[in-house]
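[step 3/7] fold_predict: job queued, chain A
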Amino acid sequence: MTTLEAAEELETTRAMVHKLLNNGSLLAVGRAGRLILIDSASVQRYKNRRSLMGRRWNAETAWAALKIIEGGIPRFMDSTARYRLKQRLKIMDPAELAAVVGTKDQVQRYRIAPADIPRAAGCLLPTGTTALNDSAVADRFGLAGARTDVLEGYLDTFRAAKLVNELSLVEDPAGNIIMHIVDDAFEGPCSPDAAIAVDLMESLNSRERAAGENMLEEIFTRWKEANGG
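[step 4/7] structure written:
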């Protein structure tokens, strides 16, 4: 669909559609003359996610929620705030959780030469499809492996800017490197399964998306059962 059609579907402006394309929320699939063509599935997915958002959380709360449902303690949040967050989590479902934690990072997509992927990979903490290159992770998600033509992972603002500069990356909403840029609220030596699950739920590949949904539901349900939710 065109940017005008996407704007009508989302009940917004064409300027906002361009902003969503630039930040990776919507996916451009090509051009017809001067018109940008947008993947209709990405429009529908954004529309569905937006309908669940309500008042979105800040990044710190989003990461705290993901850490809590995996049985961890977000020590960057005080005990009173943790208690309140747990009470809110108990009345949510997985789809609602996935929607509100969308603020955990800033997603930017770039086009990178295939030969530069190994070099860039060393700067990112794998998530989404790239995390599935680890056979243990792939087994937990019930998938055979990742798409090797896409690099997806977490890194901080400084490293992101440095990588873009060093490799002369070109911003591209349909690019093959997906950067999940995070701040100090992000913890841990590896991406937690809950975060990988949420990121997979943004995939346009139906198998990857379903695997993410199933994993998040499994983690969340297990936590609720253990905490009276």
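[step 5/7] annotate
The chain has a mean pLDDT of 86.
The beta strands are 28-32, 35-38, 106-111, 125-126, 151-156, 170-171, 177-182.
exit 0
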